[in-house]
Sequence to fold (325 residues):
Amino acid sequence: MNKPRVFVTRSLLEPGLSLVQSYCEAEIWPEPLPPERPVLLERLRGMDGLLCMLTDRIDAEVMDAAGGSLKVISNCAVGVDNIDLAAATARRIPVGNTPGVLTEATADMAFALLLAAARRLPEGEREVRTGGWKTWSLDYLLGADLVGATLGIVGFGRIGRAVARRAMGFGMRVVFTDPNPAAPEPGVQATQVDLETLLRESDFVSLHCPLTDATRNLMNAAAFEKMKPTAILVNTARGAVVDQEALYDALKRRRIFAAALDVTVPEPLPPNHPLLTLPNCLITPHIASASRRTRSEMSRLAAENLIAGLKGERLPHCVNPEVYS
Ligand code: DGY
Fold:
């Protein structure tokens, strides 16, 4: 029997790679950069499945490029804002994602960014490398304290709750906002508030919401005006949740103290981007889930979703379950 044909838009880690290759005839894009759109459209022709990355924009045109044969789209990420879910549902194509396995790695990264921005690690490191460090002095590179500070978590899903758990260990008070919050984990004290209260009361604001029409540019000029001048913004969610021009202005005017971003618009951020001129803005290259175990687990879940879809089974992690009704 012929194996189902799938296009995979970037090389996979084990065990995902072996799973895909054992069940499918897989065409795996070998380049380090994503396939350009015309290539994606051309390679998809006649494919039964697509395993894609968050860097691939998957819309109706891409789905139709397969010529009606596409049975499943498996995104190797938990966020699915790169996929037109309505278009997939209209075509009865289930879309899979990789929740759960990147929770702890992403929460670790949020805390790494929070600490780095609070204690001005990038500035300090630059001082050492460039000879700016002349002596120890009482007022040199003063940063923010965590103990007793309030952490505002926007989006209290798996990752937001894992960040709250970490905050307990640092002696922080936690407030959160979420339209559909899950209960805090046992032993975690966290209070639900509205966004305005969160912005006004928080010393640190950490973003963990998905990118939707409701959250696009949520952190805009009006939001920064509500924050404390000593506050620090951390974003490991999606770049477009933050209005970057407003952020630049808020950081430049010291309307807020600092920002630490793992996600930006665009990605990669051009090296001449204004945000990169600011000493109080730390930017990393979307690596919150980039631990060996996490990325390997993401590959495995993406492969399992793909294979289930090809078999006509329900995807283990489906973001548009309406396709089954
Ligand atoms: C995701 O899975 O959505 C993350 O952004 C990947 O790091």
Q: What stands out?
A: The chain has eleven helices and twelve strands. The mean pLDDT is 97. The longest helix spans residues 292-310.
